[in-house]
């Protein structure tokens, strides 16, 4: 499975397999989970993930953790190639989510009510340190 990059103005509702869609305007990216479960993974760019275009292939860092789907996939995309990372325990996921939430609450610009930011955050995938 090789992921390509496709730059779009708006992320499409239906995603093709093997494509990382990037909306630079909205600082969002979306892809289907690499395990094949069909789960849509949304990435926040800017303070979250970086998606580079390497001759059309997607290069994503840091790793992508699909904690909100049953598969709990955790992988890297390295020049289009999926590199599987360790699965995390519930406790590790919980603590990563809490740290991320705290960072967001502390560093967030107060332009939105906190509950909107939390809702937006929970819909997105978390930045993880390996
Ligand atoms: Zn999956």
Note down, in words, how this protein is organized.
The chain is an alpha+beta fold and 130 residues long. The chain has one domain. Helix content is 21%, strand content 32%. It has two helices and eight strands. The strands form two sheets. The chain has a four-stranded mixed β-sheet, with no helix packed on it. The protein has a four-stranded antiparallel β-sheet with strand order 5-6-7-8, with no helix packed on it. A hairpin with a 7-residue loop joins β3 and β4. The longest helix has 18 residues, at 90-107. The radius of gyration is 14 Å and the shape is globular. The model has no long low-confidence stretch (mean pLDDT 85). Zinc ion binds at residues 33, 35, 37, 39, 66, 69, 71, 73.
Q: Could you provide a short overview of the structure?
A:
With 130 residues, this protein is α+β, with helices and mostly antiparallel strands. The protein has helices at residues 90-107, 114-122, and strands at residues 4-7, 19-23, 28-32, 40-44, 50-54, 57-65, 74-78, 81-84.
List the helices and strands and how they pair.
Layout lengths: L3 E4 L11 E5 L4 E5 L7 E5 L5 E5 L2 E9 L8 E5 L2 E4 L5 H18 L6 H9 L8
Parallel strand pairs: 1-2
Antiparallel strand pairs: 2-3, 3-4, 5-6, 6-7, 7-8
The structure holds zinc ion (ZN).
Which descriptors apply to this entry?
alpha+beta, four-stranded mixed β-sheet, four-stranded antiparallel β-sheet, 2 helices, 8 strands, 32% strand, globular
